[in-house]
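Title: Comparing notes on inverse folding

I've been comparing how different people in this forum approach sequence design from structure. To keep things fair, I'm posting one structure and asking everyone to reply with a full sequence. Here's the target:
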């Protein structure tokens, strides 16, 4: 079956952007395509904020407005309402990173609970996202993953992490929402997988609440998916999986080389793509048991998901498949999918300008390093600018 190519429609993709916004996005992606500029810009942004120089306005009007919804939940309301009018839901993500103490972890939990309440009031934002290491110390996740014995104090600390996880999952369950739990580095991920599975056993019995994430750049993930599916069937819980390729490739490979163990990452991009496709096919083959949140900016993967849905007679609106992209990226995928009726969501990072700078720098660097991504965004923006000029 030939899948209809819908992502070329730039009129739908950029319907929410004014002429000025289109030119600004074009300018930004052009800048991000320049690796030297990104490197210097990242350094200057960090330094200027540390020194208290007045650069907040500049950052806010450029990268921040492209990739973030606002400083607070309330600031994001106009953005999420605009998206929702075109059929795109929002996943609000408080993008403050690098917190390391118990007060911060409790604050992160409280923020998630506030977001659950926000989602109850604002139907435009009905999915919650959370990152395991926002709720507890990375080193402790790692120690659990390595199955090293914990000291008494560490055991208490771990129990606080479990409690925070449980509090968020329970509140999500009671609110009848979904929470998508991010996957991170392999050397802490087993502990996260185990804890997410425990949450699924608690809160995914009668309906789906908790989604784990499969990083398909890991060659072991399809086997993991199959065994997890078996356990879900035997223990009677529903499985929700966000499938992504994975964000920590360089770090993973470097650590494996440095420490002399086999890399957990697929040998090349084609192998990652194969794992992604295999995982997607397996999930859709078992769509009565497993729901998918397809988190990708890859057009081929998105077309594959659409094609598999059609082959399984799943309508675009079938709740067992959702698509997701980051705010500010791949609008041609999000808005064209939504226009055709597919369940689509944008992940909307938000937070004070100063605090989200590390996130913005990662986005800028990713757009420099992801092969072809910037070029694709630029050519689509140019196409739309030209179309509007001629129409
Ligand atoms: C909604 C959403 C949620 C996300 N959540 C998470 C998360 O919880 N955890 C997480 O880790 N990431 C997450 N990501 C990021 C994601 O993992 C990818 O880094 C990003 O989306 C780029 O992959 P792609 O499928 O969009 O595009 P593509 O451009 O097709 O793929 C790029 C990806 O392919 C892989 N790759 C590139 N080169 C090679 C190579 N030489 N060998 C092997 N593999 C290679 C890498 O994973 C790289 O990021 C999320 C992304 C989205 C959109």
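Reply #1:
Here's my take.
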């Amino acid at each position: 079956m030939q899948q209809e190519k819908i992502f070329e429609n730039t009129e739908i993709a950029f319907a929410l952007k004014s002429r000025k916004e289109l030119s600004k996005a074009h300018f930004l992606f052009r800048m991000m395509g320049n690796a030297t500029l990104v490197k210097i810009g990242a350094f200057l942004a960090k330094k200027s904020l540390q020194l208290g120089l007045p650069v907040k306005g500049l950052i806010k009007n450029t990268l921040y407005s492209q990739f973030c919804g606002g400083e607070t939940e309330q600031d994001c309301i106009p953005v999420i309402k605009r998206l929702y009018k075109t059929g795109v839901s929002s996943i609000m993500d408080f993008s403050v990173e690098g917190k390391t103490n118990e007060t911060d972890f409790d604050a992160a939990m409280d923020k998630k609970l506030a977001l659950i309440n926000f989602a109850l009031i604002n139907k435009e934002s009905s999915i919650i996202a959370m990152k395991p290491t926002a709720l507890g110390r990375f080193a402790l996740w790692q120690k659990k993953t390595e199955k090293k014995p914990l000291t008494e104090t560490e055991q208490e600390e771990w129990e606080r992490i479990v409690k925070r996880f449980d509090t968020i999952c329970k509140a999500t369950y009671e609110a009848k929402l979904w929470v998508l739990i991010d996957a991170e580095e392999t050397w802490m991920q087993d502990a996260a997988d185990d804890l997410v599975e425990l949450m699924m056993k608690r809160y995914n019995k009668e309906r789906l609440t908790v989604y784990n994430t499969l990083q398909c750049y890991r060659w072991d993930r399809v086997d993991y998916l199959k065994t997890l599916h078996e356990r879900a069937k035997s223990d009677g819980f529903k499985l929700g999986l966000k499938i992504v390729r994975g964000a920590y490739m360089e770090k993973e490979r470097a650590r494996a080389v440095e420490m002399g163990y086999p890399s957990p990452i697929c040998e090349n991009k084609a192998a990652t793509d194969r794992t992604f496709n295999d995982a997607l096919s397996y999930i859709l083959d078992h769509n009565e048991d497993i729901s998918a949140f397809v988190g990708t900016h890859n057009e081929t993967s998105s077309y594959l998901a659409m094609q598999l849905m059609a082959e399984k007679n799943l309508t675009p609106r079938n709740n067992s498949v959702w698509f997701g992209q980051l705010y500010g990226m791949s609008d041609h995928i999000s808005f064209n999918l939504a226009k055709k009726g597919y369940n689509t969501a944008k992940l909307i990072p938000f937070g004070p300008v100063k605090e989200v700078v590390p996130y913005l720098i990662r986005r800028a660097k990713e757009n420099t390093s992801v092969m072809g991504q910037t070029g694709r965004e630029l050519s689509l923006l140019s196409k739309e600018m030209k179309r509007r000029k001629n129409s």
